[in-house]
Write a structure and sequence with these properties.
Length: about 120
């Protein structure tokens, strides 16, 4: 995808026809290999979109604070084995936890476990 094509898609996405824009920007249309990323300046956004983006950033900050509080509370109740640390993952709306060496990364495939298994 060329820069001009990406700009055309962005223009289409800001058009009033949301269905057409959503279709144009769907993952099926934009293959990972064809993605051209552009950094947008917030000041260039239309006011309604800028307000929604500001709300999204505020929600991100609240989510980060909640995540930090959750992880601290979890660690206050459950201690990992000696020399190990807990690492948390939240992909695809699922809570994942890894137990890793203090200086390492979690190893092994994903397994289902309960809080009491730790």
């Amino acid at each position: 995808m060329t820069l001009e094509q990406a700009r055309a898609l962005i223009q289409q996405a800001t058009a009033s026809d949301a269905d057409t824009a959503a279709e144009a920007l769907s993952p099926k249309k934009l293959a990972k290999d064809d993605t051209v990323w552009l950094n947008l300046t917030e000041s260039s956004l239309p006011p309604a979109i800028a307000a929604l983006y500001a709300a999204k950033r505020e929600a991100d900050a609240l989510a980060k604070a909640a995540r930090m509080e959750f992880e601290a509370a979890f660690r206050a109740v459950k201690n990992p084995p000696a020399g190990k640390v807990f690492r948390f993952g939240y992909n695809w709306g699922k809570l994942s936890i890894g137990v890793a060496a203090d200086d390492g990364k979690p190893k092994g495939g994903s397994k289902t476990a309960s809080f009491d298994d730790l």
